TrEMBL record, chain A:
Catalytic activity: Release of a C-terminal amino acid, but little or no action with -Asp, -Glu, -Arg, -Lys or -Pro
Protein name as catalogued: Carboxypeptidase A1
Signal sequence, start to end: 1-17
SUPFAM superfamilies named among the record's database cross-references: Protease propeptides/inhibitors (SSF54897), Zn-dependent exopeptidases (SSF53187)
PROSITE patterns on file: CARBOXYPEPT_ZN_1, CARBOXYPEPT_ZN_2, PEPTIDASE_M14
UniProt similarity note: Belongs to the peptidase M14 family.
Subcellular location: Secreted
Active-site residues annotated for this sequence: 376 (proton donor/acceptor)
From TrEMBL, chain B:
Source species taxonomy: Eukaryota, Metazoa, Chordata, Craniata, Vertebrata
Domain Cystatin LXN-type: 56-159, 175-280
GO cellular component terms given for this protein: extracellular space
Source organism, top-level taxon: Eukaryota
The protein's name in its UniProt record: Latexin
Similarity remark: Belongs to the protease inhibitor I47 (latexin) family.
Biological source species: Poecilia formosa
Pfam families: LXN
Sorted UniProt keywords: Protease inhibitor, Repeat, Signal
Amino acid sequence: MMKKLVAFAALLVAVLSKEDFRGHQVFRIVPKDDVQLALVRVMEDILDLELDFWSWVTPVDVRVPSHSLQVVKSYMERHSIKYFTMIKDLQALLDEERRQMKSAAPAGNTDSFDYTNYHTLSQIYSFQDMLVVENPKLVSKTVIGHSVEGRPLNVLKFSTGGSNRPAIWIDTGIHAREWVTQASGIVFAKKILTEYGTDSVLTEILNRMDIFLEMVVNPDGYHFTHTNNRMWRKNRKQNEDSSCVGVDLNRNWNAGFGGRGSSNNPCTETYHGTRAHSEPEVKSIVKFVRSHGNIKAFISIHSYSQMLLYPYGYTRNPAKDQAELDQVAQKAVTALASLYGTNYRYGSIIKTIYQSSGGSIDWTYKKGIKYSYTFELRDTGHFGFILPANQIVPTANETWLALKVIMDHTLKNPY
Amino acid sequence: MGLRRAIVLFALMEVTWSLSVTTIGPETVSTDASAHPEPAEENTEQKEAAEEDVMATGELNPNHYPAQRAAKVVQHYLNLRHGSPYKLFGLKEVHSGNAEEVADSGRKYQLEISVHEIISNTKEKCSAEVFFPSGAKQLSPQVQVSSCEEILKLDAKSEEEALYQQYKTNKTVCTEKRLPDSYGHVDPEMTPFWHLSIVASSFIMLKESTENTLYNMAQVANITQLATENDQLKFDCHVLLHDMVSQEIPQWKLLFTWSPAEGVKVLHTEQLPHIHQSEKQAKPN
């Protein structure tokens, strides 16, 4: 019923003019007899109120502009006429409807793509292809492997040339339910291209280094969060001798593999898998990193908690470069906070959040990639994994500032 | 002669058996053909891992997890005691913390935190004490809060009263829509009931909290209003919680009442079985 009313309202809006319904409310009036009904009709004649009656069959629905709210409410209270506020802000509701309709329609190019919404896996893959088509000199796509269910694992390479330049790796979506990360990955991709030539920091970075971006490390899991279970975390491995599905891709790396901070029970969220690198989603990155041989920063992005973390997760032993990593982290979170005041904590994984073994950045750090970091994006638990879509762009934008600090430091401190 | 041989054989088997048992273990499985000295390092690091059982005591780093987990418990306590459809508390920051063993009965944390009322966006510094009892039977933590009066006195009475009146006799809440939905959206009309579910969930989150958990409510699966009883609005809801430490999503059903005067009172709780089991058909063998 609500949807029909709103659809009718939307149609009316589209047909008439570009009217603004901000602050307008829709009341449902329930007159108890003809006397009350007559009293309600009186209001229609008061043109100044600009009331817009949607129905005259009890209950009576009426759109009340913001300037008339007080008058109408007092009138009804004075005459003891029962009413409810059905719609508290008509414009907000229409905006939301419009947004939902818009997100259903596919974008033709990366300029008309809706960055303010969450997308399906196929929409993200289409975006990647569009980006490459529009910027063939700067972006290329490589398939580094296939997921358990056979989906391609795509990595975008941003490069201005050279041969095997020192590189930065960024990944999002290793855990399926952390939707703001995949969505931020999309924003980062676009930002690299729009800032090349306009932002001095990014331009300098891309002139001398390459950036690799894997937007959806766990495509099977991501797909599953759209079709079946929004709270799915792991990949979709059919575990042998168990009715439980999935391996935690961030417990599957060869760094403290199988230790405390991961589980050997396939029915748990932090199940580490049968052996290190058993999962194709992890193995493909391992192979890529090994064969590239010149990655200088490795950044894995998760949500939620608002943290910037460095190794280790599997042991309390401090990383050899802890002092430097800590300093860079402080600079990065300061930059992040400069945009909207979003507060991030920072430190080693094991001290700041929890012990976790078999994590990606512990492995990359031990492989010699000094600038190995993990982000936990917004928020701190109020929305948690289900961060409202209108926070995607602000989150991605503030995080981008932190990423640039790390990338810039990597550029200026070759090793 | 035969018996002795049998005993020797048996003893040999025992030895062989225990040998084969000790060589199986995750740390010694070499996973990658091209991996080099790592496995040897792994073993010493495993030993250190065992030491991490010792709990942090004394002055705590406010940004590390021990103080943060204890502070989260305070959030649940405040929400349960003082939360409403229009008043919700969040942990903003931990300024300082201290932990100590309380002889044979548990561990006590003293914290200086900033609490944030989410809807009015006001902040206040509070002092709190959290006691985690030890023992086999899992008892809930005990919380005491002081110097936090302003934020608790925040007035949402008129909105609460209006909602209460509306839903006492006329309207009814009944939705299978998840709050928030997958995209983080909550219909404006349902927002007070999303908040109310967070408050009711705080009852469970408080009760289940330990030094090894960090709970948030992830989503409301559904909420239904039942007949008003003793002037209290009554609700039945199904919530998904998230424990950051285990990363699990425990699911609970809650029966609770609410009125502006009485606040939230939880009547009945039931934990639902873990959904993983139904995920996959047993592999035919």
